[in-house]
Design brief:
199 residues; mainly alpha; Four Helix Bundle (Hemerythrin (Met), subunit A); 78% helix
């Protein structure tokens, strides 16, 4: 009986608009990756456009879920995974295709390592039923990160005359600094519960 009930709930979870928006961020990943293998400056615009739309859904799906009272365990599970997959894929491709300068590979690495750290902490804290609230600083980190990756996907392509690439790398460094600060905050919170001080 329990299995049938859970199975019956799966279509409803997958067809709710907030969860569909979350899933769309995963679907867009191979499309963004494909643009790296197609010649032409227009692919930069396509990749940037796809990423911007995906970044907007990151805010919009949560807002819809709360407004429509459609917050679900599936959505809470999938949302951070979709975000991390999208960011990790774009960072990897930008570095692999030499679309960032060597001095900007370090912040990209910092961001990736922080995502792994936070994922591990969240998994550990979830086992002891401790939630990790998203801080305002973490939201700023995400905002700088999304702007940085959007600019880097676009790059200095015609007919643009602005230093888009350079601005993207500056934003990436800002995001990396905020990543270190918020990552340390999460780590301190996790260590408190690991040592029993947070109980």
């Amino acid at each position: 009986m329990t299995i049938s009930i859970r199975t019956a709930n799966i279509p409803a979870m997958l067809t709710s608009l907030p969860n569909l928006l979350t899933l769309s961020r995963i679907v867009v990943i191979p499309l963004v990756i494909l643009t790296f293998y197609v010649q032409g400056t227009w692919t930069h615009w396509v990749a940037c456009g796809l990423f911007v739309v995906a970044a907007i859904t990151d805010w919009f799906d949560g807002w819809l879920a709360r407004s429509w009272n459609q917050v679900s365990a599936f959505g809470r599970f999938l949302d951070p995974i979709a975000d991390k997959l999208l960011v990790a894929a774009v960072l990897f491709m930008l570095v692999a295709f030499g679309r960032v300068s060597p001095w900007s590979e370090l912040p990209a690495l910092v961001i990736l390592l922080r995502e792994i750290l936070v994922s591990g902490l969240r998994e550990f804290l979830a086992e002891i039923r401790v939630g990790v609230p998203v801080t305002r600083l973490a939201k700023w980190k995400t905002a700088f990160q999304m702007v940085a990756l959007s600019l880097l996907l676009l790059g200095n392509v015609p007919p643009l005359t602005l230093p888009v690439q350079e601005a993207g790398e500056v934003f990436l460094w800002v995001a990396a600094v905020l990543t270190l600060v918020t990552g340390w905050d999460y780590l301190r919170s996790g260590l408190k519960h690991l040592t029993g001080q947070g109980q």
